[in-house]
Specification:
This protein has 789 residues and is α+β, with helices and mostly antiparallel strands. Helix content is 28%, strand content 28%. The protein is built from 19 helices and 39 strands. The strands form 7 sheets. The protein has a 12-stranded mixed beta sheet with strand order 32-31-30-33-34-39-38-37-22-1-35-36, with helices on both faces. Strands 2, 8, 9, 10, 11, 12, 13, 14, 20 and 21 form a 10-stranded antiparallel beta sheet that branches. Helix 3 runs antiparallel to helix 11 and helix 16 packs across helix 17. The protein is globular, with a radius of gyration of 29 Å. The chain starts with 22 loop residues before the first strand and ends in a 15-residue tail after the last helix.
Amino acid sequence: MDEVDRELVTRPAGFNKIGSRGTPLNVITNYFQLIKRPDMHLLQYRVDFTPEVDHPGVRKALVRVHEPTLGKFIFDGTLLYNTIRLTQPLELASRRNSDGSDVKITFKLVGEIQKEDAIYSTVMNLILRRCMAMLNLVLIKRNYYDKEAKTDVPGYPITIWPGYLTTIQHYEQDYLLKLDTISKFLRRDTAHDVMDKIRRRQADLTDYQSRVKGELLGKIVMTGYNNKTYRIDDVDFDKNAQSKFYLRKEDREITYEEYYRTRYQQRIRYPLQALLMCLPSRRDINRGNTEPIYLIAELCGMTGLTKEERLDFKLTKVVANLTGVTPDRRVATLMKFRRRLEGTPQIQQELRSWGLEFAKEPVPCKARILSTFPLMMGPTEIRVTNGDWGRNMQDKKMYASVNLNNWIVLHPRATTDKIRSFVKQIKTVGDPQGVHVSEPRYIALEGDRTTHYIDGLRDQVANGQYNIVLCVLRAHRNDTYNAIKRETLCKDASIISQVITEKNLNLDPGKLKSVATKVMIQMACKLGAEPWKLGKSPLDTKKFMVIGYDTYHDAANKKAVGAFVASINSSCTRYNSSVKIHSANEEISPSFRDHMLTALKAYYTANKQPPQSGLPLPQDIIIYRDGVGAGDIQTVLNVELQGIKDACREASTVFGKDYNPGISFVIVSKRVTTRFFVDKRDRQENPPCGTVVDNTVTLSERFDFFLVSQKVSQGTVSPINCNVIYNSSNLPPDFHQALAYALTHVYFNWAGTLRVPAPIQYAHKLAYLVGENIERVPHEDLAKYPYYL
């Protein structure tokens, strides 16, 4: 149970992580206190089966018949916990119903558990999961879903199953039950349907296999015969349903077709279809299952939304309406489910037998609303309201503007009039913001194929006389977009590029002005403009460098892209970037030393002063790293943090002076299921922007806090969790909380607060561009520009 494993202690001994700044606010949470918990000495046994039994449900059934011998127990399929000491070694026999064969079960004592031991959380979660099963919910991975309450998405082959996330864990003072609503997206097509669609659409079958792998690898499928989910790691075109494999428990070879017919009563319609291959998970390997699993494509339902579906505005709007639960409805749903647990006699009997009891009302806690930060646009100070300042931008000068000179437009000849009119609109909206837009050079292309754009770029921009190129596509095409980005960003004659589609030129005047404003700002920012900066902020106290790091995983090619952006000015509005492609698809980057040294050199170059002024390097370095699992934090400290330290030591040699900055390393988690609500007039609402929580539902072993930085127009707001795993800079909690919130204001692609600090979002955009679109490292000359916006 990874979610309740006791984590590495990163909170300094005796350290008070609770801040004091801000306006006090009372909030309620989606947690319920355990007012009673088991108070018994437990024994832990490893359970082995001979011959091997793979299915956890069958394992549990084989053990269940021995309850008179085992006493009261809880069993997760591998480990059994009970209250009585069993004879050692203990061997029992059961008969498998499916084939009548005898199975030997061996119980080996491996541990004894006291009430205070961390593993007790695991036991309590197992008890709770047993109770969830009594509600006739469907277990998918670690969460339970209500199949009877499923909803079909109108007009789309997608079904949404509502579900519940439950976790018992020790927090600051008490053990708490976290309860939240979740959704599972199930498509009504199978992996075989996807393969067949590609085959029918692909005129040239020579590329069929690579297209299939490109579409399926990394995707999650669910097998309807056992409601289990699997990640597709490969498609084996050399195997099909008539291929044979060795069935260990029966000591014979059997075809996949016969296996699925006899084991799951599934008849296969297309016996020659390629098989899906899934590598064993870490948990499978720990259980001794090291062989890959082969699945029948027609039995594997697709889950999640495709890339095309995620880009479908109508679909995403419908899905948001179905799943975006308002705060009051979410609280009502959680309370209804809590009463459902309490009102089911079988569940109450199970909980009482273990000594478990939950509070009836959710846990309240203390929050604070941090002060908003004013923004500077030109000489004007702008006050931020509800995390938004979009309406204040159009008539205000940028804090630091650039001129849009020496630029070129590549467009299909059929769009000539439209693009010239659009450029006029760019000029109109640029002047009030201090961006002078000169007349570009127009290159009319005879067609809109990818080759037309590439030939045009090579003919016109290779000599380096232009600062930026605007390319107009008739319609969005990934292959053309990717080719343009590769051609402009990765060659020696690199040039910053902006791509728009013709549909953006066909809007009514009001919407056209809005699009022209966004395109103008993006192009200006890519050339170094700073539309706004923070007014008075935590950044005013020292010379800081803030860093963002994110990883993009390419499941199809089994590679990862690590993107590292580092501020090089005092207002943290200009960044230097570097990218590494990890061929081993690792999440933890071995390249932090190289990234950091590159960033320090860029900072030094941007801030060089007379020698007597001291070393122009930051006094404190703060790294915001996109979330990793609790089990990886020690590796982050050993590898990534150590890389930062090594680079700083090497900088002392490079620059000829001792350099030992303070370092803070912050893990920022977006996948957070903690929720906060404010009671207002007998209904629950989202907390306001700037709400911070650093008590009650945070973890006692961490220096962490939750931050709500955005106002959402629908649904329940999701906070982020910031976990300060290293803090040699000795920055206090109030500073870390205020800085994280302040940095959500300085992302130039959005005139509002972000959910995460801007450095992380910049790193995300860069990692996605390289991993998804260009698949190679951009030219280093572009590193000081945010070309990835």
